[in-house]
Amino acid sequence: MTNIGYDTSKSELAAVCERASVAAEYLRRADRCARAVALRAAAEALDSQRESLVEIARAETRLGEARLDRELARTSYQLRHFASVVENADYLEVLHDQPMDTAMGAQPDLRRYLVALGPVAVFGAGNFPFAFSVPGGDTVAAVAAGCPVVVKLHPDHPRTSIESAAVLIEAFLAAGLPADTLQLVGGLETGRDLVVNSAIKAVTFTGSLSGGRALMEAIAERDDPIPFFGELGSVNPVIVLRAAASTRGQEIGNGLAVSGTVDNGQLCTQPQLVYIPSEVGDEVVDEMLRVFTGIDAQDFLTDAGGARYAAKVADLRIDKRITALTSFPSSSRCAPTLLTTSCSNFPQKIYDEVFGPLQVVVRYDSDDELFTALRALPGSLTATLHADDADSQLALQVLTVLETKVGRLVFNGYPTGVMVAGAQTHGGPWPSSNSQHSSVGATSIRRFLRPITYQSAPSWALPAELGR
Amino acid sequence: MTNIGYDTSKSELAAVCERASVAAEYLRRADRCARAVALRAAAEALDSQRESLVEIARAETRLGEARLDRELARTSYQLRHFASVVENADYLEVLHDQPMDTAMGAQPDLRRYLVALGPVAVFGAGNFPFAFSVPGGDTVAAVAAGCPVVVKLHPDHPRTSIESAAVLIEAFLAAGLPADTLQLVGGLETGRDLVVNSAIKAVTFTGSLSGGRALMEAIAERDDPIPFFGELGSVNPVIVLRAAASTRGQEIGNGLAVSGTVDNGQLCTQPQLVYIPSEVGDEVVDEMLRVFTGIDAQDFLTDAGGARYAAKVADLRIDKRITALTSFPSSSRCAPTLLTTSCSNFPQKIYDEVFGPLQVVVRYDSDDELFTALRALPGSLTATLHADDADSQLALQVLTVLETKVGRLVFNGYPTGVMVAGAQTHGGPWPSSNSQHSSVGATSIRRFLRPITYQSAPSWALPAELGR
Hints:
The structure is a homodimer. The first copy, chain A, has helices at 10-29, 32-48, 50-61, 65-87, 137-145, 158-174, 190-196, 209-220, 242-261, 282-293, 303-317, 367-375, 392-402; strands at residues 95-97, 100-102, 105-107, 110-116, 120-123, 149-152, 182-185, 202-206, 228-231, 238-240, 273-277, 323-324, 337-342, 358-364, 380-386, 406-411, 449-455. By secondary structure, chain A is an alpha/beta fold. Chain A has two domains: 10-232 and 433-466, Aldehyde Dehydrogenase, Chain A, domain 1 (3-Layer(aba) Sandwich), CATH 3.40.605; 238-411, 3-Layer(aba) Sandwich (Aldehyde Dehydrogenase, Chain A, domain 2), CATH 3.40.309.10. The radius of gyration of chain A is 24 Å and the shape is globular. The interface between A and B is large, with 82 and 82 residues. Strand 16 of chain A pairs parallel with strand 17 of chain B, so a sheet runs across the interface.
């Protein structure tokens, strides 16, 4: 197939982008329900190929079968979710102002809705070879919006990318969409060449801050800047208040440690920073330590990722303001690490994301100390608050700070697990994202749309959605 | 007053931004209806000071009294419009997903709305000293959203800026908002220093492509990139189809020439390019020429602007593919200019915006010629289509191209005159804007908001808008 490639040459890439432009014309003008039908067909196709896809992904990612199975279920759920989003016209944000006289003069008939931006370049994540890669949320939201997608193949799971692209392309074709609705490209310099191609009208990226920065710099070289939607790193602070720590210490400690180590901590919503009261927090920390010490070291997604984790953990451990609660790993594999420091004297580098099963417990002596630390937090995807009713007065003050820092506030729960839903927000202030939109769930479709207004249009000129 | 300055020093600017951050805390947490009351109070205050404000603007802008009077009416209309937008909670985009079981597992209670971004830097336009400057749409939409504003004073109307800022600040204060809700800064390097200040969370700019580029480069140097909403230049094509040209030639020609020369053509929606059929278009062009030759040369907003216009017109006139219909101006003032060229052989530079009363008539011999030319058009704020029912088949094809090029499609009318309304879109593909949002009307508020989701929040933790 011409629209799938491991190592795409410059001339092939140009042809891919040209075909994406042609597909954009088709998708934009076709009935939107055709896209919904195609998304459902793709979900069915993924489900029917689940066994072989999971096996391919297992072989190249070091993720387990059960985890990959859940991930693929999430992926087809997501396809069906966006099929419903497209069928329901709400996402088009239709508005209609009738003609009338105003203090500014005569108001004409104005009808507004959202239209597709055009071809989207998608850079998926290494840690989710399905749900945040080729058949993932960015691809599906873009196609739902009516935008063809060119995915840059992730080098850590090339075969999974190619096989899942083949499944989607076949399903789209059978449902009547162009094969070029989805194309896959690969190669070292291909990412840069892709984002500077004039056919591409938006870019999504899930990955490291440095990778995101490099793409933003390439985009800045274009004659026409295009939107870049990055999800770039998050420390996901958890704040445990006193009454909650006193009454549910063990439960909270258990949940925190599980959330911090699930999938070997390689999740964008992994809670790296945990603020625990000095007085009544020992039960929380004791239980966290108990869970940590019971977990064996696991393989990282890649050796390079494991090495980065080990180096960052070592750098934190040598800081005098930090105490290690877990012991040094005895093997070369990277074990879950629990560190502790004080809210009154901690190194700034705990604010840098460490991708992996690291948690840093920050003990606070006073409310003032806690507030000072929270105000200095970087932007994150999530913040989590454990607060009983008796904590509510302090909790409301904490919330006024947290609301400026994150895209999702979790109450008395844990941040890992991001539901695909209408009211979901996955994306907070920089560096967790650079956008004013969610990258998971129904509203993430808005990233690939822009408004247009029809003024005084005769009925024959109006699109169906605007009342033809 | 400390929050108004002609020439702001670096230390003063730092203090201004710090105060804006403090005001942001207040505005974000205050009842949103307090903002609506303050916006209405500001409208009243502008209306009551209309005579003196118009006189100050007349003295420094070369715009006439009647025009300034209309502009100020638009400005207070806009304030009242956004007061209504804020009172009605629709702009908060509240969504609520109930807990339920799904194929992905248990869905928690998710409640989502939009929150204010924080302090906004506003760079106004020279051609609208009220409606697109200190008390203009960007300021008002940002304050409506709950964001304090720091306006960079426009050097072409400093006194107007200062006086209108004083009126707004007093009205905001009297209505209970902080004085620092609106601050005004000035000076040569101040614009750059403003957009790199970490307190600033978004930037709006209305002006030249080069000015917008310079601000985007400054923003790219920040540790945390912030959204830039630019409105940067537009040629606003008008396409006249054959039946319309045959049956309404004189009417269309008259309207086009008036729209092209009103306010001396110094409007962002001025229709610079006019596509007229070769066969049946003479009546349109004859009438345009009649109107053009009856208009005396007028002063530009600034001598520099007039010189730029004269240079760009001269550059077009010397091109052999272009014929001048109007004669060279006899005085040093810049007269309205009507040029004509052929759709089959025209210079690319007609696609560059010429700010002033220039129209270029592009005659097309065939539909193919027209389509080829339209596909090559740059992005614009508007496109206008004159089409009778007999033209509807060709018109629908033309629309499929125009819909990818602009933010507003005007039918059988003229693009100048941008109504402040809910369904308005002012902003199209690059270079007309770089954003996926309108910069005029109710939905322009979305530029200053981002989503946040409350997951499993107890009722005491919910903001009123999310159902506390």
